[in-house]
């Protein structure tokens, strides 16, 4: 904290003279100290991954999961303070349940991101509360339904009033990341936590944007997610960790439209490939040093 911020970090509802909200910035610092969380939007689904740091050898293995199911077609992973994350997930489930009760359908991923972004942002406005110390990544698969009219919402029908193109559909895989300030964006690949920079660098190498050609498949996404988590763990290599992986596909895909844990066999295969890749990188580095 600089001298210009003296006194302005005591309240959540006050800006500093240079327009900063220090409490939100401190919340971001809390996120940066957490394990790495990533999300990958593939051509046929979404993969969520987490580097769950193990603080004690006495903890039961695979207990206290950090990736949660919000509705049957979507899940949430977060970096930062675990109690804040649990409250975030609980609220997200309430929003999903309320939407389903009102509209008799699952909440779209974008609508949940909008509602939760507004909820998180409300905690930056009042002196009686503090910002959420998490960055959450929401991934899900919206049901693919035929459009009632041609064109996306807001653009209007392209072939006249009430016209439509046969086979035009909406829905598909979606990925959003919500920051402590309440800001949220849609992503093809997202990362948060201590190893976010390394993870982002690896995500940028993947074919995730349909404009760049054929995107990676869901199974490829699982293997890449495991590899990226192992790469990001280099920033926390003095600590043990457990790898959590979940995925969600269309109704015709391997998860039948549900957000589920990646099957044990596939997860173990992905971890094996990730470790092999890391060993290969270390061998290459040793060869380069010998050549020098």
UniProtKB/TrEMBL annotation:
Residues 8-30 form the Proteasome alpha-type subunits domain. It is found in: Cytoplasm; Nucleus. The keyword Hydrolase applies. Residues 252-292 are annotated as: Disordered. One of its GO terms (biological process) is ubiquitin-dependent protein catabolic process. InterPro entries: Ntn_hydrolases_N, Proteasome_alpha, Proteasome_alpha-type, Proteasome_asu_N, Proteasome_sua/b. Residues 280-292 have a biased composition (Acidic residues). It comes from the Eukaryota. Residues 257-279 have a biased composition (Basic and acidic residues). Gene3D superfamilies: Glutamine Phosphoribosylpyrophosphate, subunit 1, domain 1 (3.60.20.10). The 26S proteasome consists of a 20S proteasome core and two 19S regulatory subunits. Belongs to the peptidase T1A family. This is Proteasome subunit alpha type. It comes from Recurvomyces mirabilis. The lineage of its organism: Eukaryota, Fungi, Dikarya, Ascomycota, Pezizomycotina.
């Amino acid at each position: 904290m600089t001298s210009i911020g003296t006194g302005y970090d005591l309240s959540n509802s006050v800006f500093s003279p240079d327009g900063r909200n220090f409490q939100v910035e401190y919340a971001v610092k809390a996120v940066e100290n957490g394990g790495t969380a990533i999300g990958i939007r593939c051509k046929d689904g979404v993969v969520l991954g987490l580097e769950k740091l193990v603080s004690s050898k006495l903890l039961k293995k695979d207990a206290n999961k950090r990736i949660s199911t919000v509705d049957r077609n979507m899940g949430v992973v977060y970096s930062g303070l675990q109690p804040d994350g649990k409250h975030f997930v609980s609220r997200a489930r309430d929003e999903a349940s309320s939407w389903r009760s009102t509209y008799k359908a699952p909440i779209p991923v974008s609508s949940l991101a909008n509602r939760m972004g507004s909820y998180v942002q409300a905690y930056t406005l009042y002196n009686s509360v503090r910002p959420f110390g998490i960055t959450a990544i929401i991934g899900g698969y919206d049901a693919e339904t035929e459009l009632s009219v041609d064109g996306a919402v807001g653009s209007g029908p392209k072939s006249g009033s009430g016209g439509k193109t046969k086979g035009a559909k909406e829905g598909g895989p979606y990925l959003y990341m919500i920051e402590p300030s309440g800001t949220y964006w849609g992503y093809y690949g997202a990362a948060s936590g201590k190893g976010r920079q390394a993870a982002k660098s690896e995500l940028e190498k993947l074919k995730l944007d349909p404009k760049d050609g054929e995107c990676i498949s869901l199974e490829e996404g699982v293997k890449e997610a495991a590899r990226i988590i192992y790469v990001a763990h280099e920033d926390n290599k003095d600590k043990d960790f457990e790898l959590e992986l979940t995925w969600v596909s269309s109704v015709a895909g391997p998860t039948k439209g549900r957000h589920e844990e990646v099957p044990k066999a596939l997860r173990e295969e992905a971890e094996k490939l990730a470790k092999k890749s890391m060993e290969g990188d270390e061998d290459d580095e040793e060869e380069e040093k010998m050549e020098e």
